[in-house]
Amino acid sequence: MGNGQGKPVDFTGDVSLNHFRLLRVVGRGAFGKVRIVERRDTNLSFALKYIRKDEVVRSESVRNIIRERRMLEHVNHPFICNLRYSFQDIEYMYLVVDLMTGGDLRFHISRKTFTEEAVRFWIAELGCALRYIHGQNIIHRDVKPDNVLLDADGHVHLTDFNVASDIIPGKVLTSKSGTLAYLAPEVYAGKGYDVRADWWSLGVLFYECIYNKRPFEGNSEKSLGEQIQSANPKYPVTQPPVSLGCLYAIGAALDPVPSKRMGHTWESFINNDFFRVLDFDLLEQKRIEPVFVPSSDKTNFDATYDLEELLLEEAPLEARARRQKPRERLKEDATEKEIKEDNLYRTIETDFRPFDYTIAAYKKITEASRRISDDPQHEPASPEQGEQSGQALTTDEAAPAPAMNGQSHDQSQSSTVSSPTAASESTQRPAGRPVPPPLPTAYQTEYVSRSSRTGGNRVTSPTGGVQVTLDGGGSWSELARQDATLPTDANAAGEAKGEGSSGMFGFLRSKKGRNNSPRPKERGVLGKEGARIVIG
């Protein structure tokens, strides 16, 4: 696959499809699919998003794709699915990004119900991602569970910048772009919106992760828009109940007034009672252990994508390495439509530029070194200064960390990209070409216990849950003593229910062939979808 003619692959040239082994299909977008790929020279694994040119031209979405590729080149953050390569051929445009083997959030919340602690962790990490892209003057405009990917360790990553837009401080956007159910009231109002619309979308996602349903579900675009603009979502009474702290946080995120909405300032987010228990500095460094970790024993993707590729595609991607016919030249008697389409194809050919993160990182490092050597008065910056500088090198551009047993340290990091062996680097990478730096290595590999952090006390509440008291000034669960707050992990829930067969997983004991104890509950999971039962 990927080298149908059997010719040797030239890894010194521009990146192409021949540089990758094509593995299984794991996702599908509006104009193409996503599949796992592996670099032939380094054995690094990535996700390949391939986009049909004819579909993009037909829908006049060329500008969106080119804008997405340009934005991804300039962003790099622990909670974003970062770009590694881009290239094109006659029929397709390709974006190669970090591989996330944990599946998307939609996959998980449609199958399981999660604890408040797990949801809080996801929303906090996504909040960090939004703060970063907004600081880069980018608004995402399509924050939803489908566009949130989990890595193997359980960290979330924002992806799909297809409808994202540049923003100019002081100016507003007016176009209705994104998914209707997640659009903010000000987007429907049509009078202009800014980055605070992303925080509304995050609030809808927040609600959906707790209740396994969206807060607004109209039968038409008009009725949906009316519901969203009224901003009066229902908060069902459930068993187990949702804590007041969580309800207040959802309500703050779904505030119809942008200037009052949670997230309108960073402080309004991190100082919210529900999120204040987290240390956001440690969180953004990935030094806090995720609550929910996707299973490594089974796939976290929909298997039907692979079947569609095999059964429904007239020419599966495996055939792309064969010689492709060049696009026909425009005829002299071409119609206006054909001329317009030809111009769009030319735009793709010139503006969808190739990108290689190894070369980009190498150039940035050498440019920084040159500036330092040219400035005799330069003083080395402290790590804190480096983080604040807009020109600071990202973790992916740092010098490679020493390898252990022929492998890099990224097995303990959040990225799921496998590392090349020392042998593959030394024998297959040509001289003079920069060695690809390992994916994030700057973060500490040891998680910090949240119970040891200063600034709060963790005690068992009267109802058997966890109460977090902040700075000795009371707790957000004080008002919810009548509610059963959620346990810190699923094991505690099992102990609270006792050993009787009436527990959440008690039915497993009555199944034939199960003489042993039932399977332990997953951390951060209440149970299957619908485990938080609506009772009023």
Widest beta sheet: strand line-up: 1-2-3-5-4-12
Largest sheet: 6 strands, antiparallel
Shape: globular
CATH class of the largest domain: Alpha Beta
Walk me through what this model shows.
The protein has helices at residues 53-58, 62-74, 105-109, 116-135, 185-189, 196-211, 221-230, 244-253, 266-270, 280-284, 304-311, 336-351, 357-374, 383-388, 422-428, 490-497; strands at residues 20-28, 32-39, 45-52, 83-88, 92-98, 112-114, 138-139, 148-150, 156-158, 165-166, 238-239, 355-356, 456-460, 466-470, 525-528, 533-534. It is globular. It is built from 16 helices and 16 strands. The termini are far apart. The strands form six sheets. A six-stranded antiparallel beta sheet has the order 1-2-3-5-4-12. With 536 residues, the chain is α+β, with helices and mostly antiparallel strands. The protein folds into two domains: 1-101 and 300-450, Phosphorylase Kinase, domain 1, CATH 3.30.200; 105-284, Transferase(Phosphotransferase) domain 1 (Transferase(Phosphotransferase), domain 1), CATH 1.10.510.10. One of its GO terms (molecular function) is G protein-coupled receptor kinase activity. Residues 385-394, 442-466 have a biased composition (Polar residues). Residues 20-275 form the Protein kinase domain. Keywords: ATP-binding, Kinase, Nucleotide-binding, Serine/threonine-protein kinase, Transferase. Residues 276-367 form the AGC-kinase C-terminal domain.
Summary tags:
six-stranded antiparallel sheet, Phosphorylase Kinase, domain 1, 536 residues, 2 domains, 16 strands, 16 helices, single chain, globular, alpha+beta
